[in-house]
Design a protein that fits this description.
With 143 residues, this protein is of the alpha/beta class. The protein contains 8 helices and 5 strands, in the order βααβαααβαβαβα.
């Protein structure tokens, strides 16, 4: 199952080791999750992960975030964006997630912000799932 990870899932994973988001990030580290990545989304990850408030909340340094970003680059499947359908959503940052998912032929977008992707995700037949639901899928399928 090829997914696209919204930035908020990665932030949640770095803020707490107790939730589904951390388990998903751990599965990525262990090369058990296939996820699509684009240059715009990677730049979004970097901008958010290196914010002072994110670093403080995660108790990490900028160099730690560089290591995490490098790991995401190594594990992610790079995809080029050939078609842009903007505007579909209210938030430009969500637009890049949807564009990547559609261009990559992803099976789902994993995010905490389900409603932010509607109704556009429905138009593209793109499932939007919560991290807890995706983690449940990983456990049920022993991934």
């Amino acid at each position: 199952m090829l997914i696209v990870l919204d930035t908020n899932v990665i932030v949640a994973a770095l803020r707490s080791r107790d939730g589904a988001s951390f388990q998903i990030l751990n599965a990525i580290i262990n090369n058990r999750v296939e996820f699509a990545l684009s240059v715009p989304l990677l730049l979004e990850y970097e901008a958010v992960l290196k914010r002072p408030e994110t670093l403080l909340a995660a108790s990490l340094k900028t160099s730690d975030m560089d290591t995490i970003l490098n790991m995401l680059c190594a594990r992610g499947q790079p995809k080029k964006l050939h078609y842009l359908w903007r505007p579909q959503l209210k938030d430009d940052q969500d637009e890049m997630v949807l564009e990547l998912a559609v261009n990559a032929g992803a099976d789902a977008i994993v995010t905490f912000n389900h409603n932010d992707f509607l109704p556009a995700a429905t138009k593209f037949d793109m499932p939007i799932i919560m991290p807890s639901k995706y983690y449940q899928y990983l456990k049920e399928n022993k991934i």
